[in-house]
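Q: Structure tokens for this one, please.
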Amino acid sequence: MQLPQFEKWSLLAALRFLLASIVAFDHLREYVPIGAWSLIPKLGAFEAVLGFLLISGYSIGASFIKVPDGFLIRRVKRIYPVYLASIVLAYIVFVMEHGSHPPVLALLANVLFLNQIVTATSFVGPAWSLALEFWLYSLTPLFFTLKDSTLRKLVFVSFGCYVAYTCGRTLFHLDYYAGLGYGANLLLLAFIWLAGLRLARNLQNPVPVLKDIALIFTVHILLAAAIQFGWRWKHGGVPDFFTHDIVDNLLQACTLALVLWAFVRLARRPIQNARASAVLRLLGDISYPLYLVHMSVYFLLKQTGLRSPILFYVSAVAVSFVIYWVLDFYSQRRHLRPAATAGGGRLATGVPRGES
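A: Here is the predicted structure, written as tokens:
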């Protein structure tokens, strides 16, 4: 029996939900023992974020190409209702945990996406990467004035800074990206989002961009493995690297390989008779609130004494669905539009209904 073939935006929506779930399970370990589910965090929360950023850059690029006018307004309508709801939930958690109210200026900075610029952390923990995306959204019209060769140079300048900082985190115990201020993440992590943008711009010849992305992912995994091997060697634990650490590296590589495979598959050949999937698109839309609110939901559930990790996760998904259904009118209206193309087009053709 032949498996159903879904159009590209349905497939990317499913991928976004999978990546959000990896992050959600990674944070779940901080609230309850997760037992048999412990394999999921090994797929790599940071690798999931890299996948998010690649999909975001590609989707935003395709959206801007289709309708450049009013681009930033569309993004604000899309992200703000859910983001504000996540701030409200985080506010409730803060009051319950600390018995006091957070500083008004800190809240205002987060509402305006100045977190990670005037603050080192985000009030909504996972929103550190959303702030980076918002800055990149704002710069998108500028990026489209640049030649592809210039954009490629920016990708590798940013990636070079990322590699240097990653080494510095080990040598000098520098902060993780969620704890950086002064907009440093724009320099350190823009590379993968810009790679996605380049992919959207190179409609007819995506292969060179895909090769760049494959190179970036490969260097990232090899660098992580080399750093971990060096640490084990320094502390006399080289056998542990081969029995434990290398497994984690391989699983993280699997996450990035899945992301790359999705784009390679969509670029390689048209998908004949592909169809849109309302279920997959819904999962993609839920992935956004799931990414933002899961930690707040986990905290609230922990107060009840609940200990089942799968119920924690399912509850976070359920709350995310409610937030989407109540607040994300923009996405709901978008799904009512007729499809611009059949699902059989090449990678960068058609309208990104999951992101536009």
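A few notes: The radius of gyration is 20 Å. The longest helix spans residues 238-268.
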